[in-house]
Amino acid sequence: MIDTTTSVGKGILQLYKKFDHIYITGYIQPQFQVAQEKGAHSFSGGDFAPNSNSRFTIRRGRLRFDYAHMNPRDQISLYFVFQFDGSERGVFIRDFWGRVFENKWQLFQLTTGMFARPFGYEVNLGSADRESLERGRMSQTLMKVERDLGAMVSFEPRRPDHPLHYLKVDAGFFNGQGLNATQEYDSFKDFIARASWKPYPLSKFLFISGGLSYFNGGLFQNTKYTYEMTTDGAGKLFVVDSADGNFGRKAPRKYYGADMQLKWKHPYGATELRLEYWRGTQTASASTTETPPTLLTEPYYVRKFDGAFAYLLQNIVNSQHQLGIKFDWYDPNTEVKGAEIGQNGNNINATNIKYTTVSVGYNYSINENVRLMLWYDFVRNENTSLAGYTGDVKDNVFTTRLQFRF
Fold it and tell me: Helices (DSSP H) in 96-254: which residue ranges?
């Protein structure tokens, strides 16, 4: 069974019926934004320029080519995808992958190339399909640009009479640096796996789905200095481990995720609730918790993290009009809280601050090709002992976007 809840799945289903076909799609997302202050740091399309609190941008401009040879009478079927992203910032590769379907049992697939990591629900929800403007802060930090180079095996029964036709399992190995790196800089690979249950009817109008995700990766430690959290008589602080044996070891990156989606269809359209939670260990640097695109020459910092995303989506009047509330948080260091950050020179800087974002919005699907999106992000940081972060930073953002799609 092909997962028709995603744009990729819908495209595959259409192509499967035609055997050989080239399918061209794309979209553009011009938008206007206003931030609370000039130079605001933002996860809603990137930071504002130092002297600006308003801007026109093209958030994404995608052109995608799909080719399929999907004759079920052949031993295998083939599927290829090439996707590019263009904006005022330049032109970038987004997807370059191929997939092989075996047709004897119609159970297994092999995907290799550059494609989305199989972790979580939000990461794999396409930007043209997603109801909110952006993925959450945690997604953007830990899974920046969502994609990586690797190979993945999938178990996904395509026959509707198969007893496990609602189940999909993806498991693969990836370089680890994502699209931010020009080449693989160590021999360690990330293992990522996700088991998901496709929308299952609890009744004629109520559907439930969900999944569990696992990520086990690491970085080549290019220095002997590793900072980890501890507690002494003065409170919480980072302490350095400078053992010679640290050099060359595998610095840990381990994530665990769980998600659930509940959808109720009604005369107005649908009501949908989505919940997703991640936690784990991330190794990065003092200044960021993003996975480094190049080998670090500075000390490594190991932090425990957690975060979540929650969506409540409600059609009003009819399916063209939708209201949305999204809540997400990202705590990059769960071992330290509030005033403990920056206290008494404990070497705990702004990288460790927890952020919570509540986004409220309205989407109007004018037709199948054009959608208007109006969203406001209320961004809240925890109050700390650091200068500039003793109160809430003014970084709320309003966005109006018009998405064109073909």
Answer: 137-142
pLDDT digits (tens, 9 = 90+) for 90-103: 999 999 999 999 99
Q: Is 237 helix (H, G, I), strand (E, B) or coil?
A: strand
| Domain-embedded: residue 8 | no
The whole-angstrom separation of Cα 301 and Cα 296 is 11
CATH code of residue 192: 2.40.160
When pLDDT is cut at 50, 70 and 90, the band that residue 7 belongs to is: low
The alpha-carbon radius of gyration of the chain (Å, integer) is 22
* Other beta carbons within 10 Å of 266: 11
pLDDT of residue 17: 53
Residues in the chain: 406
- 399: enclosing H helix or E strand: strand 397-405
* Contact of 273 with 311, CB cutoff 8 Å: yes
302: closest CA among 318, 315, 316, 291?
A: 291
Helices (H), 92-196: 137-142
pLDDT band at 9 (very low <50, low <70, confident <90, very high): low
The reported pLDDT for the residue numbered 6 is 56
Tell me whether residue 92 is in a domain.
no
Q: How many domains does the chain have?
A: 1
Any idea of the CA torsion for 181, 183, 189, 191, to the nearest 10 degrees?
50
Residue 301: inside a domain, yes or no? Answer: yes
Instruction: Give, for 79, the enclosing helix (H) or strand (E).
Output: strand 76-87
In a 3-state reduction of DSSP, which class is residue 178? helix
Is 23 domain-assigned? no
56 burial type by CB count under 10 A (0-12 exposed, 13-18 middle, 19+ buried): exposed
Which of 114-128, 135-149, 228-242, 355-369 is predicted least confidently?
Answer: 228-242
Domain membership of residue 254 as a residue range: 29-59+125-148+161-405
Is 318:330 a contact under the CB 8 Å cutoff? Answer: no
Phi/psi at 343 (5° precision): -85, 130
Give burial (CB, 10 Å; 0-12/13-18/19+) of 373: buried
Integer Cα distance of 193 and 308 in angstroms: 19
